[in-house]
Task: inverse folding
């Protein structure tokens, strides 16, 4: 999860009247920031864990310096996107602009999403392009994009053998379906799969095949003045965390390295976005 642009930043203006209830002054100054997603560890893990996910830790680190508290919730991905779009929460965690139109996004990515195919151990399969998926029963997660609405997403949308999962723990369901031979394989994020395969309940249940697809991910903020401010604070906070070395410390706890800034700027990415997409990349 999927769960990441044009040659220049697109600054489109949403019709904020559709979310008028969340624009009340007291909401703008609410000291509690609510972020949510389905489990996608190591990006966002169990809220009660000592390691709730590196993006959750980044959010707490960044916003605490401005007097905010961060509340992190688990919910199905589709619901998280709808809730942030309508101002019921402040942001959905680890989204791509193509699967979260209408939101505010910061200038800098908060990670990368490398799509892999998970198959059973020993299963003979190699991936060349989407034609490699023909005739196979593929599992996917509702509202996930796997290649920015590219060939893979188009294939999954059109295929009669695609199974779509909607749940607070979709990865668990997909692994179970793979084990029970109800699907042949499924698509997921590389880091998420690596983390899962290191857990006792998922060991020896599958192995990964690369697709060559990797895209930047962001917090998808509600399309309000509050959301815009939070996006700007996140950008500034990421710069500060890198400069002080604190970002490396957080990532090290999860066995991760900095995804780097070389491809974070929207105008430097190879992904292409239609000008009619209603999202906004914010800069001060």
Result:
């Amino acid at each position: 999860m999927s769960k990441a642009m044009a040659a220049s930043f697109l600054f489109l203006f949403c019709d904020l009247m559709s979310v008028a209830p969340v624009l009340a002054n007291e909401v703008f100054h609410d000291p509690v920031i609510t972020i949510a997603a389905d489990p996608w560890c190591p990006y966002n893990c169990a809220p009660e864990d000592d390691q709730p996910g590196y993006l959750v830790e980044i959010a707490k680190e960044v916003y605490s310096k401005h007097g905010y508290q961060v509340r992190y919730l688990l919910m199905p991905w589709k619901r998280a996107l709808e809730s942030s779009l309508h101002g019921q929460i402040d942001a959905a965690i680890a989204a791509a602009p193509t699967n979260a139109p209408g939101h505010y996004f910061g200038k800098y990515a908060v990670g990368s999403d490398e799509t892999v195919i998970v198959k059973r151990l020993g299963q003979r399969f190699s991936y060349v392009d989407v034609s490699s998926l023909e005739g196979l029963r593929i599992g996917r997660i509702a509202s996930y994009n796997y290649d920015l609405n590219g060939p893979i997403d188009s294939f999954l949308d059109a295929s009669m053998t695609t199974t779509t999962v909607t749940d607070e723990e979709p990865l668990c369901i997909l692994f179970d379906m793979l084990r029970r031979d109800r699907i042949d394989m499924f698509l997921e994020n590389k880091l998420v799969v690596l983390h899962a395969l290191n857990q006792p309940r998922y060991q020896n249940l599958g192995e990964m095949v690369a697709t060559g697809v990797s895209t930047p991910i962001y917090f998808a903020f509600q399309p309000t003045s509050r959301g815009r401010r939070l996006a700007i604070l996140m950008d500034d906070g990421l710069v500060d965390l890198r400069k002080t070395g604190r970002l490396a410390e957080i990532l090290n706890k999860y066995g991760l390295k900095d995804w780097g800034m070389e491809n974070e700027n929207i105008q430097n990415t190879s992904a292409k976005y239609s000008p009619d997409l209603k999202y906004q990349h914010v800069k001060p």
In short: The domain at 16-111+217-269 is CATH 3.40.190.10 (D-Maltodextrin-Binding Protein; domain 2). The chain is about 25% helix and 20% strand. The chain has two domains: 16-111+217-269, 113-213. The radius of gyration is 18 Å.
